[in-house]
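User: Run a structure prediction on this.
Assistant: Running it now.
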Amino acid sequence: MIIIIDGYNLIRQSDSLRRYEYKSLETGRRALIARLVEYEKKKGHKITVVFDGWKSGSADEGRDREGKINIIYSRYGEKADEVIKRLAAHAVGEAIVVSSDREIAAYVTRSGKTALSSLEFEAIMNKAIYAPSETKSVADKKDVNERQSKKKGPARRLPRAKRKTLTKIGKL
């Protein structure tokens, strides 16, 4: 699975990452990248984070790598939104774009990929990083199956698009 992240959007939406950005922009980026490295170690997804460089960036698109995390800085005059759209359009297979920007989310959804808000992704990431790994016993699994089979009332099935989105998010 490919995860494309709007870096500054995630930093500014997150209460915990925003306080690092108050110190300096570089500190905020480093804090985000450190968390993403930990998340990648736990889950093994291919992660690309894109940062804006359109106001003060170089003439060429900057690329860097931290662990297995790909880092892209948009070039001078190009917003990170444009880079994210381009990456999402060329992504092969399952791709999730993390941004709370409505324009990006609408574009990604139209192109058949999955959009996820920054806060939702942060919650998933924190749960994966900080939650202890649990192994369920056979008895616990049997309990869950019994509870699921005792449902009553009419079936309420979600639309296919929503089910696909939830399936992709479940893989995070």
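The chain has eight helices and six strands.
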